[in-house]
Design a protein that fits this description.
The chain is an alpha/beta fold. About 35% of the residues lie in helices and about 20% in strands. It has two domains: about 110 residues, Arc Repressor Mutant, subunit A, CATH 1.10.10; about 300 residues, Alpha-Beta Horseshoe (pyruvate-formate lyase- activating enzyme). It is built from 17 helices and 19 strands.
Length: about 450
């Protein structure tokens, strides 16, 4: 069986989570998490994993000079670069607050700078931030530091400064090269800018350069997606993220209401954009990784797939797992494995709380024993397209009900269920979110009455 049929796409293209966590954010406990419980979970995870794994840091740098209308990130639009230093000082104070919970010097395995636009910040300010983080930590031998950059404002100095601080991987938001698509999403970005930052990265010594593309954007069609991928091929990035555009104007407001739903590719038309891209990537030597990601065989993400160390968290797919991930900055989400916690979404409130000596968490979730089992199954499916319950620790009372919910998908050829395991055939990978939804007990017990998720296919 090759590409999914139009009937299957229509049947299974329903709203559903992207599963960067389980439980998903809308199903975190309404009562939230107390500061005491969150701090206790961080201490527990740190003591269990600091020597064996180290920790990951996600640092949210939220500022952008311009609003891209497709964007679903938490950001602040401003031309005032005077916001940089006060914000970074707050991030460093937050890191100090977490440092007070640790019983020894933290070992950092991963750092990722996300946004917003991290390259909104000057190279000197990024150096100030990173040196402030690293002077109070040790670095793991197998560390990986990465950042997101805009091709329009990333300078050679940005790249060289971060490389000298240990960064070896970066990703650039390309989205689409078609002028009409760029116009309607308010992201005018010449190919020459992408070519320039990609070449600079290689000249400096970065070992992995990623380009982010998006399918399903307004006014996008097969011609524009082919053209974009052909232009991407000329630069041969080590990784490609090929994201499905999530149209959620009821959440993201004015930006995504800048065009009409009639401008968007629908159902099988949108799926054809993906299948076309996937086939072209395969033709050009890229291997499919998890959901929406592709990598050349030399890249660490592909090695992680083959070695079964691929992991997924709020940063997306990563080449290795750390039990503890600390999110610093406005709106960042932290994961202690036993609990989740999200920071305040307002820049001003975030800075004020940190200034008062408080870890600025405004909501969170303490995982139950059931949550931890379901989380592992969903991680297995999202990362490896398979899971097993042969080990008694992976069994749970509702497992029979889950398998019953999968019967129809099994009949449709989307999942193969054995006595104590299941797997997805390659052609069923576009429906991975639907298979995970069969395990999502919190979603099943409380179906949303309003639309809160993007479409799965």
């Amino acid at each position: 069986m090759g590409q999914p049929t139009a009937d299957l796409i229509r049947k299974y293209n329903i709203p559903g989570p992207r599963y960067t966590s389980y439980p998903t954010v809308p199903y975190w406990d309404e009562s939230g998490i107390s500061s005491g419980d969150w701090e206790a979970s961080v201490r527990r995870s740190f003591e269990e994993s600091n020597h064996s794994e180290g920790l990951s840091l996600y640092i949210h740098l939220p500022f952008c000079e311009k609003l891209c209308t497709f964007c679903g990130c938490h950001k602040r639009i401003t031309l005032q670069h005077s916001v940089e230093k006060p914000y970074l000082e707050a991030v460093l104070r937050e890191w100090d607050l977490y440092g007070s919970l640790f019983t020894e010097t933290p070992l950092i395995k991963e750092i990722h700078l996300g946004g917003g636009t991290p390259t909104f910040f000057s190279p000197d300010h990024l150096k100030y931030l990173l040196e402030g983080i690293l002077e109070k930590a040790d670095i793991a031998g197998d560390y990986e530091f990465s950042f997101e950059g805009s091709p329009n404002n990333t300078t050679y100095d940005h790249l060289k400064t971060l490389y000298d601080l240990g960064f070896s991987r970066n990703s650039f938001g390309v989205q689409d090269y078609d002028p009409e698509v760029q116009r309607i999403i308010n992201r005018i970005q010449p190919y020459e800018h992408v070519e320039r930052v990609t070449q600079w990265s290689r000249d400096i010594g970065y070992t992995s350069v990623s380009h982010d593309l998006v399918f399903g954007l307004p006014r996008q069609n097969l011609h524009s997606i082919r053209q974009t991928i052909e232009m991407t091929r000329q630069l041969l990035p080590d990784r490609i993220a090929f994201y499905s555009y999530a149209h959620v104007p009821w959440i993201k407001g004015v930006g995504q209401r800048g065009y009409d739903e009639s401008d968007l590719p629908k159902d099988e038309e949108k799926r054809q954009l993906y299948e076309t891209g996937k086939q072209l990537f395969a033709n050009y030597g890229y291997e499919e990784i998890g959901m929406d990601h592709f990598a050349q065989p030399h890249d660490s993400l592909y090695r992680a797939l083959t070695e079964k160390t691929l992991h997924r968290n709020f940063m997306g797919y990563t080449s290795g797992k750390t039990q503890l991930m600390i999110g610093l900055g406005m709106s960042s989400i932290s994961d202690s494995w036993y609990a989740f916690a999200q920071n305040n979404k307002s820049v001003e409130e975030y800075q004020a709380l940190v200034g008062q000596g408080e870890i600025p968490v405004f909501r969170g979730h303490l995982l139950s024993p059931e949550d931890l089992i379901i989380r592992q199954h969903i991680l297995n499916i999202m990362c490896h397209f398979e899971t097993s319950w042969a080990d008694p620790s992976m069994q749970f009372p509702q497992l029979g009900n889950v398998l019953e919910r999968l019967t129809e998908m099994q009949e449709d050829g989307l999942v193969q269920v054995e006595q104590e395991s299941l797997s997805l055939p390659e052609h069923a990978r576009p429906f991975v979110r639907n298979i995970c939804m069969a395990f999502d007990l919190r979603l099943i017990r409380k179906q949303p009455t309003t639309r809160i998720f993007s479409m799965t296919v």
